Amino acid sequence: MSGTVIYSLIAIGVIAIIGLSIYIYRQYRFIKTKQAQQREQLARLEAQRQEKYTYVVDSLKILAHALQEEQVGPVEASIRIRSLLVYYDASLHQQAEYQVFDEVFRETEHIPILEAWKALDRKTRRKFERDIEQIEQARGDAVKAAAKQLLVLLNQPRH
């Protein structure tokens, strides 16, 4: 082999090495950028999750406290607490202390709410109000006890 061929092959090899090095470096930068974006996205999602969790905890505390102070009725409090407990800790529905919230919800889920409630005629609305009063009399103390227990739980530091 002549010297020119050898030098040409060496030059081609060096150019190939430089080209591949540039390609590898660009891929490395792309991957690092992608990983940084994923970390930022995870941090944003975690912040949103924490914000929602804090909102749920605060809402549960407010509802439980309002129930204790009789600022809200047991039926309304039960329905709202039951909905929020799913976001706080869904396993609480299985604990005996908190099943009363589910029971009240099931007993009242046939009662219209919001716009449907407003659209009811006076007679039908009064019938539902009597149903609510009966449920509150039957389960009011249990709901208040569960709310009190929930306040104790919510005020404990969570790991």
TrEMBL record:
Pfam families: DUF2489 (PF10675). Keywords: Membrane, Transmembrane, Transmembrane helix. The keyword Membrane applies. Residues 17-150 form the DUF2489 domain. InterPro entries: DUF2489. The chain crosses the membrane at residues 6-25. The keyword Membrane applies. It comes from the Bacteria. This is DUF2489 domain-containing protein.
